[in-house]
Specification:
There is one protein chain. The protein is of the alpha/beta class. Among the domains are: 40-102, no CATH class; 154-267, 3-Layer(aba) Sandwich (Glutaredoxin), CATH 3.40.30. Helix content is 47%, strand content 11%. The chain has 9 helices and 5 strands. Strands 3-2-1-4-5 form a 5-stranded mixed sheet. Helix 2 crosses helix 3 and helix 4 packs antiparallel against helix 5 (85-121). The protein is elongated. The N and C termini lie far apart (112 Å).
């Protein structure tokens, strides 16, 4: 028994010594992580800034900006901390031009997504979430204010005389590709009313480009002065089922009038 016990202890001691021996032979070291360093010259070139601007930006971000402005780009940060009016104006212009380019790229991609949606899936019915079974047992996510007036049904809106349009009014005009003379006669009347904004919605057009093509073809018979006015007053839009909630199938042209943001009537 003593011999067996001694043998067992010897094996256990040897096994316990193995990790220690391995650790002594192969020490564990932390893995070094190498990050790609962006130089001042690279940042300056990317943001169209001077290297001195980049140094100032980095110094400020290291001391204070990291607590407040880590989500902002260098141009905006430099514009915020700049105290010289002329330099701040330069940063403002630079930021504005860059932002316009970003918006242009984002909207171009959004249009590409919309075109892909139509190409891959065609025309799909709009989803009325209020008709889903869950809606009957749930509260509205944004209930109206207690003193707010209910949204009027479009079909019950009063019919307004076109002569009653006021400066600053916005009209939502719904057209379709088959509507020609009637739609363009109505558009001509609307753009002749001073300071009335025309939002043109196309129903059943494959994309925004098709609506623009329809509009340009119809404007070809207008005078040069009328076309110039139309270019500044008519804004083509994607069809919006929310704008024309319960009347989207009405014959074109359908014209809704908004005054100070409120739907006040429709033109006959």
């Amino acid at each position: 028994m003593n011999a067996a016990h001694s043998l067992t202890r010897g094996i256990a001691t040897a096994l316990l010594a193995l990790p220690l021996a391995a650790a002594a032979a192969s020490p564990v070291t932390a893995t070094a992580l190498d990050y790609t360093q962006v130089t001042e010259a690279d940042l300056a070139d990317h943001w169209s800034l001077e290297q001195a601007d980049i140094r100032r930006y980095r110094n400020y971000m290291a001391l204070e900006g990291r607590f407040f402005y880590t989500h902002l780009d260098p141009i905006m940060v430099l514009g915020i901390i700049e105290t010289d009016p002329q330099r701040q104006a330069r940063y403002a212009e630079q930021y504005l031009m860059a932002e316009r380019q970003r918006i242009k790229a984002q909207t171009a991609f959004a249009q590409a997504v919309g075109a892909a949606q139509f190409r891959l899936f065609g025309k799909e019915k709009y989803v009325d979430f209020s008709r889903l079974p869950q809606a009957a047992a749930s509260m509205p996510s944004h209930p109206p204010a207690p003193d707010s007036a209910p949204r009027p049904a479009i079909r019950s809106l009063p019919r307004l005389d076109p002569a009653g349009l006021q400066a600053g009014d916005t009209v939502d005009v719904l057209v379709d590709a088959a509507c020609q003379a009637g739609c363009f006669d109505r558009l001509r009347t609307l753009v002749q009313t001073p300071d009335v904004h025309v939002l043109l919605y196309g129903r059943d057009f494959p994309d925004a480009a098709a609506l623009v093509t329809w509009l340009e073809a119809g404007l070809a018979s207008w005078t040069e002065a009328e076309r110039q006015t139309a270019a500044t007053r008519i804004q083509p839009r994607h069809f919006d089922p929310v704008v024309f909630a319960d009347i989207a199938s009405a014959p074109a042209p359908l014209v809704l009038v908004r005054r100070n943001g409120q739907l006040v009537g429709r033109l006959p």
